[in-house]
Amino acid sequence: MINSFAPLGSQANSAPARQAADLRQGKQWAASLAAMLLPLVMGAVPATSQAQVRYTVSPDGTEIADSLTRLAWRRCAEGQQWDGGTCTGTAAKFNHEQALAHAGTQTGWRLPNVKELASLVDHNRSVPAINTAIFPATPSLWFWSSSPRVGYPDAVWGVNFSDGIVFEVGRDYSSGHVRLVRAESGR
Prior knowledge:
The protein is an alpha+beta fold. The protein folds into 2 domains: 11-42; 47-183, Mannose-Binding Protein A, Chain A (Roll). The protein has 4 helices and 9 strands; from the N terminus they run H-H-E-E-E-E-E-H-H-E-E-E-E. The protein has helices spanning 15-42, 47-54, 96-104, 114-118; strands at 55-57, 63-66, 71-74, 81-82, 87-88, 142-149, 152-160, 165-170, 181-183. The strands form 3 sheets. A 4-stranded antiparallel beta sheet has the order 1-2-3-9. Strands 6-7-8 form a 3-stranded antiparallel beta sheet. A hairpin with a 4-residue loop joins strand 2 and strand 3. The longest helix is centred in the N-terminal third of the chain and has 28 residues, at 15-42. The N and C termini lie far apart (77 Å).
C-alpha cells in the first residue's frame, strides 16, 4: 500500500526515519519518567528536613552551624540584628575594601570565599535564593566574597541571592552586602 501523504522512499516513510521517531518518543518518555522519579530518589527527605539536618542554630539564634561545610555563619547580614525571631534592620552596603575592613573588625570572623558563599544558595528558591527559615530577611541582592577574579585585579566574585548566580563585580562598586563566616568551633 502506498502512503498518499509521502512519496514512496521519502524520509517520512523510511525505516531510519521511523526508528528516529521511535527513539525521540522513547527519549521523551524516559525524560518524563526521570522528572517524576528524580525528586523521589534524590529528595527522599523534604527540603525543610534536609535544612534541619544540615543547619544547627546557636542557642542565642545569632549563628548557624553548617554540617555540610563545617562552617559557622552569622545568621543576619551585616547591619541587621537578630531579635529572637528574625533579622531586623537594614543590611549595610559596602564596597569590597570596606567589606574586608569590616570583617577584620569582627574577631574570629571573615569574608567568605566564593565557594563558601555559594554553598548557601538554595536552587529550589528565588528572591531570595536562600533558606529563609535559617537565614531570615536576607536581602534578595548580592553579597561580597573574598575571592579575586584571577587576571583582573579590580574584580572579585559575588553571589546574587535574588537568583543564586555567581558573578564578577568591580571592587569599588559600593552596594554589596556581607555575611560573615568562620570555622565551626570544636572542629
